[in-house]
Amino acid sequence: MSVAKQMIHPDHFVTTSKAPDVAVLAYADSGNKGTLNKWHNHSTAQLFHVVRGSLAIDTEAGTFFVPPERAVWLPGGVYHQTRYLTETDVRYMYFGPSVTAPLPQDPRVMQVTTLLRELILAFMSYPRTASLEGPQARLADVILDQLKLLPASPLQLPLPSDGRLKALCESITVTPDQPPRLVEAAKRCGMSERSFERNMQRETGLSYRAWCRQVKLFKALELLAGGLNVSAVSHELGYEGPSAFVASFKKAFGITPGRYFT
After folding, report:
1. Using CA atoms, how far apart are residues 108 and 152, in angstroms rounded to an integer?
2. How many CB atoms within 10 Å of residue 70?
3. Who contacts 226 (Cβ-Cβ below 8 Å, separation ≥6)?
4. Rounded to two decimals, what is the model's pTM?
5. Average pLDDT rounded to a whole number, residues 232-257
6. Residue 149 buriedness (CB in 10 A; 0-12 / 13-18 / 19+)
7. I want to staple 137 with a disulfide (CB 3.0 to 4.6 A). Which of 132, 151, 160, 171 is the partner?
8. Lowest-confidence region among 83-92, 102-111, 253-262
């Protein structure tokens, strides 16, 4: 057992289906590669902190990819399903309505700072109690303050709400190496090229070409998390070669694929 797991109180390895009676509730869990938690929602806001491994969270607005030391913030009521892409350790934090008003009201991926990581671990070293008092309550307050400050990471693949656009985009996520050309994509949606581009930009915040690039990069993250090397990923996704893939990846994420998961 890792040192971190030894520090977590056994209470936090026990799940509960009840809404917390306290402002903040924690839960530590692990998932095997391929595990799928089907569509559901929670009445409370939720933070998924990935400590080891990676997972993808599908929402009605799009997919969020969560590599190590990132976290997904989901406000209460957001329907989602969770896909474990590798063997993954997760720390969950649930936040009651009394403390979430100043926190983000939309789903997002957050970078977990060293300070926040240690605060969550310290919080989980205490037993789960009916009410938070003393040091545990003060830790919860600092965690909430940190969540207000964390910037969002560019790890969301937005999906359009228009039925025709959404069907097209969902088909592209299945085979991201061969997205249809703009003229074909517009034709499949029964739109002119100009109307198609305008609707894609309005509904996803991205041009069609940029959205297709994002799909490829998200698939690349999933394949890399699953153990494929850079050469295999670049071939799988139809890049001209490993150098072209590495350049595209670094432009999007500011770091090379080889360093991303470390």
Report:
1. 6
2. 18
3. 33, 85, 86
4. 0.73
5. 88
6. exposed
7. 132
8. 253-262
Is pLDDT above 50 for 199?
yes
Q: Quote the CA–CA distance of 83 and 201 in Å, as a whole number.
A: 28
Residues 6+ apart with CB under 8 A from 71: 47, 48, 49, 50, 109, 110, 112
When pLDDT is cut at 50, 70 and 90, the band that residue 6 belongs to is low
Q: What is the DSSP string of the chain?
A: --HHHHHS-GGGGS---SPPSSSEEEEEEEE-TT-EEEEE--SSEEEEEEEES-EEEEETTEEEEE-TTEEEEE-TT--EEEEE-SSEEEEEEEE-TTT-TTS-SS-EEEEPPHHHHHHHHHHTTSPP-SS--HHHHHHHHHHHHHHHHPPEES-EEE--SSHHHHHHHHHHHHSTTSPPPHHHHHHHTT--HHHHHHHHHHHHSS-HHHHHHHHHHHHHHHHHHTT--HHHHHHHTT-SSHHHHHHHHHHHHSS-HHHHT-
Q: Could you read off the pLDDT of 17-67 as tens digits, one per residue?
A: 555 566 788 889 888 988 999 999 988 899 989 888 888 898 888 888 887
CA 88/CA 115 separation, integer angstroms: 21
